[in-house]
Amino acid sequence: MSDIKPFKATLRMFDHQVNFLGVLYGTPTIVTYSLGSGGSFSGRRQTADHSSLLGLRPQGEGTPVMPLIVHFQPTANGYVLSVKNRGDYYEHFISKGWQEVLGAKKPNTHTPLTFSLVDHEKNIITLSEMTARPLLASLVTSNNKFLGGLKSSRLPYIYLAETDEKSKITFILSDFQG
Predict the structure, then answer these.
(1) How many structural domains is the chain composed of?
(2) What is the mean predicted confidence (pLDDT) over 102-120?
(3) Is the pLDDT of residue 21 over 70?
(4) pLDDT at position 1, please?
(5) Residue 53 placed within a domain
(6) Are 135 and 126 in contact (CB under 8 A)?
(7) Alpha helices, DSSP H, located in 111-151
(8) Are 24 and 67 contacting, i.e. CB atoms less than 8 angstroms apart?
(9) Are 74 and 6 in contact (CB under 8 A)?
């Protein structure tokens, strides 16, 4: 891990915009869902504000938004990611929010989620190996889960969440500052 250095980069995708749901769809981003197992009684309907959760929106849908700018801060277990876009979540950590979905957590979080950058063969990438600009990479959490899109048939959004390898996203990292 001695080769790991802090840096800032823009996180993009080829065919989707990546950002907080509140940025992609407007704040507040209210969802309504039922708790339960799907039987004849599915439980009382619940509402929640998902504005602080990370999500995806297809390119060309809605108004384009500023791309997500992330600071990669090295730790003994990988990178802690913090948001560098000005606004409500500036300096917040990216960590687990609702279920397996990632969202903004205040900077005083005691156990932030850590990430590794990996190439298409699952080799860890460090800043000194980032010769290709822009860089294509996937993010793997300290739980050995890939970041990928999660879509629930009951909710209208695609969330950025911990997923299995088959659902991983290849991100485009660009605009490096380190």
Answers:
(1) 1
(2) 88
(3) yes
(4) 45
(5) yes
(6) no
(7) none
(8) no
(9) yes
Residue 80 within a domain = yes
Range of the domain at 129: 7-33+45-177
pTM, two decimals, is 0.89
Confidence of residue 40 (pLDDT cuts 50, 70, 90): low
**Does residue 38 belong to any structural domain of this protein?**
no
Give yes or no for a contact between 71 and 84, defined as CB atoms under 8 angstroms apart: yes
Residue 154 lies in a domain: yes
Compute φ and ψ for 28, nearest 5 degrees: -80, 150
Question: Vertex 51, ends 48 and 57: CA angle to 5°?
Answer: 115
DSSP assigned state of 127: G
Q: Which of 110 and 67 is assigned the larger pLDDT?
A: 67
What is the bridge-based pairing of β-strands 78-83 and 68-75? Answer: antiparallel
From the number of C-beta atoms within 10 Å of its C-beta (0-12, 13-18, 19+), residue 138 rates as buried
The CATH number assigned to the domain holding 66 equals 2.80.10.50
pLDDT at res. 162 = 95
> How many other CB atoms sit within 10 Å of the CB of residue 27?
14
Reported confidence tier of residue 172, pLDDT bands at 50, 70, 90: very high
